Amino acid sequence: MLLDEEALHATLDRFGPLADTIQQNPRATIEPRTSTADENEKRAMEVLTRVSLGGAGGLQLERTLGEGGMGIVRLATQVALGRKVAVKSLKEEARTQRMTLKLLREAWITGTLEHPNVVPVYDLGVDEHGGPRLVLKRIEGVEWAALIGDERRVGERFGGRALLEWNLSIFEQIAQAVHFAHSRGIVHRDLKPENVMIGSFGEVYVLDWGIAVSLIDDGSGRLPLAADAREMAGTPAYMAPEMLGAGPPLSERTDVYLLGALLYEILCGHPPHEGPTLMALLRSIALSKPAFPDLAPAELVRICQRALDADPDARFENAEQLRLAVHGYLQHRGSMQLASDATQRLDELRVELERPAETIDRDTLYNLFGAARFGFQQALRTWRENELASAGLREATLLLVEHELDDDDARAAAALLAELDRPPADLVARVTEAKKRHELERAKLARAAQDFLPEVGRRTRTVLALGLGAVWSTVPLVSSVVSDHPTIQRWVYWSLAFLVILGGIGFWARDTLTKTAFNRRMSRTVLLLFIAQLVFAAGATLLDFEIVQFQVALLFLWFVMAANVAVMLESRIAPAAGGFLVAFLVAAWQPRAVHLAMSLANVVLTVNLVRVWNPEDNSLAEETQRRIEEFAARLRDRHKRRSERRGERR
């Protein structure tokens, strides 16, 4: 529950003489200000009278290791065991009942928490002044606060690990100690880098449990209860909103918040709460909306934001959940790095696609896409929940789908879209429509290509060429032998007879001769030849042409028809057209040789057709492939022109 302005001012008024101190040093711990002892506290103090003087097993005090405002820590030798220990006691000016109780509580709490990340308590006794003397394991190390932002020093002392990774490993051990404390019903409520000691070999110890509270009332009165802790205590720079003394009671989630504050300092280099005035600092604590640097890892930012939520119910349920989230990030760092590198390729892909359509290099485009896709896929193989990789892979694929649609390559667009889970419905519809249109065009062009393939029906055409060619080659010679006076009318009869024969052949081979446009056109050309010959014979009769003149002119008609077929349908029968032209010139020069010229020209035609349409000749397969490639080129040109028009419109 957030504090309003009135509550903040009321909190500010309670500080009194502490206000200036807090403003000058928000990282200092605020102690509970209770000055009188209640019945539980008096009972707790009686324990001290039952501790015998020198009960620590015989200590030889040596030099001072450190001292704070109220306590002093000395190096000592524990004679019985011959080991070095740390002895914590009160300064002379701090030997009050309140400070005595505080040190006793620290001893009781720390002694209860037997955990690798909590300093072991060896004994609790009294000193020569009757005050408490706490015997602890001696720790040789430095405060985490001195290392948390010093990458060089961390590297020198603990190896070449990255500073972030090292700090997070420290954080995990702190969270484990806090979670263990929670399992014993203890809330630390003063977690900060200054209260964490790093040993010479990397040991991590959570210190200063002096203002800890208990979630469990064991009836001993030794520890203050969290439910009764309604006054402000802790370190303002790290405080949770409820630690201001209003709102929900303290709980395990209060320490979760403090752990989040430690994580924030790891990421940002300073505590979450700062301000030029004390009121600004209080507002920062109450609102709990600290800003994060742009370069902070997004996953860690999300974890930290949840831990620092002003509402305790919105935070992680316990310290272990928070630790596992951070541990997951450490495991996923490799995946995140792969995704980050792939994102750079995605940025380059976007830049390439923003260029004018006609200047985009397809190889460059797909190299960038391939690199981005591979990186995102590898990141997802390492960590399937990597949202950055999932989003990046999806965006890269959608960009290429859009590009292929603009480039009118529906098949490529469909193949790319098939790689996506839950593709956008509108894009699916566009790709489906483009694919159908593309398939219709390909089918249309394929049918067109098939229509003009000379290979289809060539066996039938070869048989017809042999049969009809033999007749055409012999008829002129036979007519000159059997009749001394050939007439044009006979050519009319022969033409009619050939038309009837062609009709019968057409009916017999109708499936083959009508299967392709090539065969249909070739059949119509032959039919047209005999119709033209019939009409020409009729016209020549009406004009009283001489038979020789008619026959010579007929050779020229055959040449024109053959040349037309060579130009329009089958270029390889050009020799036959040449044969008719030569026969025409010879007959025009020597009219008496016209029958021989006709026969020889038809022989040339027959041989030419049989060679061209020979079923065993593989050259037709090559011709087929050439035709297919021509149509494919036409299809590509059509797509290219469409893309250019789209580029102009853009």
Secondary structure layout plus pairing:
Blueprint: H1 5-15, H2 18-24, H3 39-49, E1 59-67, E2 71-78, E3 83-90, H4 97-112, E4 121-126, E5 132-137, E6 141-143, H5 151-158, H6 163-183, E7 186-187, E8 196-199, E9 204-206, E10 213-214, H7 252-268, H8 278-287, H9 298-307, H10 319-353, H11 362-382, H12 387-406, H13 410-417, H14 425-451, H15 458-482, H16 488-508, H17 510-513, H18 517-542, H19 547-568, H20 574-589, H21 594-612, H22 619-649
Antiparallel strand pairs: 1-2, 2-3, 3-5, 4-5, 6-8, 7-10, 8-9
Helix pairs in contact: 1-8, 3-4, 6-7, 6-10, 7-9, 9-10, 10-11, 10-12, 11-12, 12-13, 13-14, 14-22, 15-21, 16-18, 18-19, 19-20, 20-21
What does this structure look like?
With 650 residues, the protein is an alpha+beta fold. 59% of the residues lie in helices and 8% in strands. The chain folds into 4 domains: 1-30 and 141-317, Transferase(Phosphotransferase) domain 1 (Transferase(Phosphotransferase), domain 1); 36-138, Phosphorylase Kinase, domain 1; 333-450; 455-617. The strands form 3 sheets. A 5-stranded antiparallel beta sheet has the order 1-2-3-5-4, with helices on one face. A 3-stranded antiparallel beta sheet has the order 6-8-9. Helix 9 packs antiparallel against helix 10, helix 10 packs parallel to helix 12 (387-406) and helix 16 (488-508) runs antiparallel to helix 18 (517-542).
